[in-house]
Design a protein that fits this description.
The chain is built from three helices and eight strands, in the order αβαβββββαββ. Strands 1-2-8-7 form a four-stranded mixed β-sheet, covered by helices on one side. The protein has a four-stranded antiparallel β-sheet with strand order 3-4-5-6, with no helix packed on it. The mean pLDDT is about 95.
Length: about 170
C-alpha cells in the first residue's frame, strides 16, 4: 500500500490496484503484461508458474507478457554493490548490497541491503533488510511460458539480464 501511495502521487493518471501477482484477476485482458523484478520474490517453481499463468489470463491472443528477472541460474553471480546520491535539498542516501547463495543446490539466493540516509535537516539514520529471491534456469522459464500458452524468446537488456518476452498463442 505504501508503494502504491507513492506511485499515485507520481502517476496520478494511472490506475493503481493492490494484488498478488500469482492470483490477481482484473477480469479483462491487455496487449501487454509487464512483470518486472518483483518476480524475484517468487521462490518456488509453482509461484513462477502461477505468475506466468496469471499474466496469460490477462494477455490477449497475440499480446505479449514481458518478465524481467534480475538473473537466471546461468547468469547468477555472488556480488556486492554500492551506491547512492544526494539531492539539492540536503537529503542523501548510500547503500551497500550483498548477494550470496547459502545453498547452491536449491533455487534461491539471499540479498542483504544496508542503507544510510540523511534527512534535509542533517539527521542521519540507517536501516537494513534481507530478501530471499528465486533463481531458475532458462530452460525452466521457457518450459513454464510454453505451459501457459506463450511462444517465448529471450532477449538481453543493456545490463545483460535475460528478458523473457512471451507472445500469447
Amino acid at each position: 500500500p505504501q508503494m502504491l501511495a507513492v506511485n499515485r502521487r507520481q502517476n496520478p493518471e494511472c490506475e493503481h490496484i493492490l494484488g498478488d501477482m500469482t492470483s490477481l484477476d482484473l477480469g479483462r485482458q491487455f496487449d501487454c503484461v509487464l512483470v518486472h523484478d518483483a518476480i524475484m520474490y517468487a521462490t518456488t517453481p509453482d509461484a513462477v508458474r502461477a505468475t506466468i499463468a496469471c499474466a496469460a489470463r490477462h494477455c490477449r491472443r497475440g499480446g505479449v507478457a514481458v518478465f524481467l528477472p534480475d538473473c537466471v541460474k546461468e547468469t547468477y553471480v555472488p556480488a556486492t554493490a554500492k551506491g547512492g546520491d544526494d539531492s539539492a535539498d540536503g537529503r542523501g542516501l548510500r547503500h551497500l548490497q550483498w548477494r550470496w547463495d547459502p545453498d547452491p543446490n536449491d533455487d534461491t539466493y539471499e540479498v542483504g541491503v544496508t542503507y544510510l540516509m540523511r534527512e534535509a535537516d542533517g539527521r542521519v539514520w540507517s536501516g537494513s533488510e534481507c530478501h530471499r529471491f528465486g533463481c531458475f534456469s532458462r530452460e525452466d522459464w521457457t518450459h513454464w511460458f510454453g505451459e501457459a500458452g506463450f511462444d517465448v524468446r529471450i532477449h538481453s537488456d543493456p545490463w545483460r539480464r535475460d528478458v523473457f518476452v512471451g507472445v500469447r498463442r
